[in-house]
Amino acid sequence: MSFETTMTSDVVGLTKVAPFSRRGFMSATAAVAAGYTLAAGPVRADIITTDTNGLQAGDAKIKVGSEEMPAYFARPAGNTKAPVIIVAMEIFGLHEYIKDVTRRLAKLGAFAIAPDYYFRKGTDLTRITEIKDLLPIVNSKPDAELMSDLDAVVAWAGSQAGDTAKLGIIGFCRGGRTVWEYAAHGSALKAGIAFYGTVVDPANPLWPKSPMQLAPEMKAPVLGLYGGADTGIPVAQVEQMKAALEQNKKTAEFKIYPDAPHGFHADYRGSYRRDAADDAWKQAEAWFKKYGVLS
Fold first, then answer.
1. Which of 18, 127, 145, 189 is surrounded by the fewest CB atoms within 10 Å?
2. What is the pLDDT of residue 1?
3. How many CA atoms lie within 13 A of 174 on its CB side?
4. Which residues, by range, are in coiled-coil regions (predicted)?
5. Does some domain include residue 241?
6. How much is the pLDDT for 273?
7. Domains in the chain: how many in total?
8. Does 53 fall in a domain?
9. Would residue 259 count as lying in a domain?
């Protein structure tokens, strides 16, 4: 198996969900019409939807080199100096769940931006229905290019009157890994929040260092939110990451939800666990406030 098609630990956790009945889930047609991806499995009928009342929200194009990267943003209407939070998506593309998360953050007072950093592949990831077809695309994204794309998002936010002195990043699944990587890269970052982001990578020449290997280089405090029942990211691995950060005197906290599987915050999936998701969101908001991202 080549590195392009390797099942990374975040993906392993996704693929072993308990069997469930179709009751309580949308039809595939309805899910696609609502803007959700199908690669993660059936979409729950009882999804969280956040309105745009009091917000300015929509699509944007962000200049990266000679190209333009699509993004979705949401911010408080009329607030020109809102703190900036990057939303790092899962492997499924810029679909409705990630857009909703940006609106949730905007309701907390942030200028939240979700960039589609896989755009160069020329494929709409939200339309891909099989994880095996997504892997060659997302696993061939070089970390160096990813970091540069995120820096471009920050520069764009600054040009749109966002307060980049109050910069945060939050990510889910593969985006959780992105949070760890960016926390080691970006000295301007105030705080990061990683929802079940993998900390140990498979061999991939495009990813020179895993989050665990980057522990000595962390420049911002990170909150790690993990599921004790995640079949891809064992608790022992999370504990190793915690120990590596402590050893290097880095600021980080971890909360493990004992019965929660991978993807417990993803309210559109069968993996959603409301109690864990609600608590984790409160922890995330408190973390951003503690480190001066949100006021």
1. 18
2. 62
3. 25
4. none
5. yes
6. 97
7. 1
8. no
9. yes
Is residue 64 in a domain? Answer: no
236-281 pLDDT per residue, tens: 999 999 999 999 999 999 999 999 999 999 999 999 999 999 999 9
Q: What is the CATH number of the domain that holds 96?
A: 3.40.50.1820
User: Hey, which residues are catalytic here?
Assistant: 173, 230, 262
Quote the domain boundaries for residue 107: 3-47+70-290
